[in-house]
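Why do we bother with a discrete structure alphabet at all? Because it lets us treat a fold like text: something you can write down, compare, and reason about line by line. To make this less abstract, here is a complete entry for Ornithine cyclodeaminase. Read it the way you would read a sentence in a foreign language you are learning: slowly, and without expecting to understand everything at once.
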Amino acid sequence: MTGAPFPYVGPERIAALVSPREAVEAIEAALRAGLNPADDPPRSQVDVRHGQVLMMPSERAAGAGVKIVTVAPHNSGTGLPRIQGLYVLFDAVTLTPKAVLDAPMLTTLRTPAVSVAAVGPALTRTTEPANIVIFGAGPQATGHAATLKSVLSGSREIAGVTQVVRRPEAYPAPRDADVAVVPAGGAQAANAVRDANVVVCATSSRVPVFDSTLVRDDAVVIAVGSHEPDAREVDAGLFRRAHVIVEDVRTALRECGDVVMAVEEKAITPEQLITMRSVVSGEVELTTDRPVLFKSAGMSWQDLVIAEAIVSRLQEHPEL
């Protein structure tokens, strides 16, 4: 291979190059420009002795890319991350590598950007101060909080954030004064859900993490934690009540246990699922008398869109 070596873009540089709000805007722009998530190839998973290797390829007119991620369940006892990996961005025509990016940070940036883009019209249909409840304490929990704050800044006040975790004592005190940490399964968590305008589920739970009868009719629920057909964070009852948004119907019916089990329990039909592309483009209007539920699978096109935005900004501002 000839020419200058392609850059490695690490976690700190990714954060400096593209803000959460800009990531949301990149996802919205791609969908409005005609990107169809249904065209994405399915991810592949290979079991290895000590975990799994996941591969997520995608392409667009300007580029192609693949995320390669390892999942090592036993790393939690060694001090190493459970999930590690790299993203390689290629030129669309020559397939020459253009950049290598840190995959976990790319995922941390793009996943909440997709969530907020999918439910954007519902988030901004009122100016009522938002009470946000987040189940989980990992990067996606904090990432969703940061993205919601970034996007709602200037249009909707954040009244407070409640983080629901299994063992509050195991987590450091929140840096933000408006964040409360409460234990899962108790009255504090139930009351927080009852008052919430936005509920985010970003856990490894395989069973529903809250009672959906507590959810307000005008609430927005985002579920990103489960990615297997037999695991879910949200019960079928919410599917009966809500506008249900997915990235792609076929992918959701293959990979999203929340959706798969709700369909099996006849809480919803595949025909009732709404694609995020139709919401972002304005083809579907979300009424205010029903909750809005977005169930994310996490797809390859999302990584490619954000990776292209990062590398484009890097080319414009190499000093960052």
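What the structure line is telling us, in plain words: The chain has a mean pLDDT of 93. The chain has ten helices and 14 strands.
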